[in-house]
Amino acid sequence: MFLEINVAIVISGMERFAFKGVASNLVTYLTDVMEMSNSSAAKFVNSWVGFTSMLPLIVATLADSYWDRYSTILASSLLYAAGLVALTSTAVRWPWIPSNKSSHSILSLSWSLYMVSLGQGGYNPSLQAFGADQLEARDELPGIHYDEKSSEKRRSLFFQWWYFGVCCGSLVGVSVMSYIQDTLGWGIGFAIPSLSMVASILIFLCGNRFYVRKQRRIEDGKSIEDVVRYVKASFVRMIHGGSNGSLENEYTKVELELQEKAVLCNQDQDIATCNGDNTSEEGQHFVEAVRIVLGLLPVWVMLLMFAVIFQQPATFFTKQGMTMRRNVGSNFKIPPAALQSAITVSIIILMPWYDTVFIPIVRIFTRNEKGISVMQRIGIGMFLSVIAMIIAAITEERRLEVSRRSDKLLIDDVPFSIFWLLPQYILLGVSDIFTVVGMQEFFYSEVPVRMRTMGIALYTSVFGVGSFLSAFLISVIEYLTSSERGGQGNWFSDDMAQARLDKYYWFLAFASAMSLLAFLTFCRFFKR
Known about the structure:
With 528 residues, the chain is mainly α. It contains 20 helices and four strands.
């Protein structure tokens, strides 16, 4: 690939190192240092991750409509780094803060984390769309011509290697930083991700002379306003069933205005106003583009349960690991959060096999140049995530059985190896190769060209809403199960010998299976 694309992939990996270096072990920090309960810590992490993943949907919309991607990347990365530095200072100051000021410390931790969220909200979708822009800009150079199938294959390869770079950064962040945080302290454990983010900004700036920047056109600045007007008119028309004449006229007026924008521009031969020959065609198809975006919402909704499962490794999987035997040799204990690296290791090892082994074999049967379609790729990953949760439930049942038979009924060192958790981690990693990469390609490819940053944000927002949904499910289930037997039936009890995470995993497996069934039904009628 070209140098500027490689630079984008490298700095995306550095950003993931910084983020995972904080997020992967955050639940341990909250329970051990901030002394939160298991359920409170899990809800805090889920809410923060949810906000972080949802924010790109707002920021990316503004970036597509009013800002250019390069400026968005630069400004948001500076805010991102500032949040990490503030988080580091909070962790360093913590041992000297009197115990009666703990609420102030939690507040300081919160605003530092949410500053990181604000920075990431503009950074991630803009950087990924910016990297894809470099690829498409090269396709448009004089003398370089690719047919549609070749361009689609190259785009799919870009998203695949993008995710590979992201996973490499995540692997180092999860495995190395969790060990440093558990052994050397949280101050240095948060300082290293801060330095990584600052270094990524410098590397991004060093590539300035190689980047191809797409200029935002004048009419693009109002695209989001047009979308809002069209959606509002469509919604009102649907509610009233078209029976109200004035509302029907308003809907028709909005639709005609959007379709006629380019016609009016085409009648005016001022090139500076029209911004090129393609304006007419884009304006005529704008209404259809909005309809396409709305048509993606069913897929978006059906992927939410996959996103809920996606939250488990950083929360309850980690808490499980804290209770299990983690010794390697006589002196070394595996940090529970480090087991999340099994997800990224499986992705890094198996990702090249996807192209070299899996696709050639599948191509024999499907006679499809890509092997499988994007929708099939997403569906396979969803199926594997269901299997992962079934295995997690069975493993947790076994852990509880061993715990009850042993002399130690509390939290520490159940005589059951932490490596029994590896199958569920690895299966989630394999499911990511299919579903996460497929989601990135799907949402980027299906939206109009001018809204592609928003397309990437739609993908990240799935995990944002999934995080909030996970926190909501924990709250509801905790309330319902705490009322059983005077509070003794709480599935998320702080005493892991009494918690029933196995039932929670069975519930997630069932709900995800229902989402997969709905997804398969939808795919029979979905037309690109």
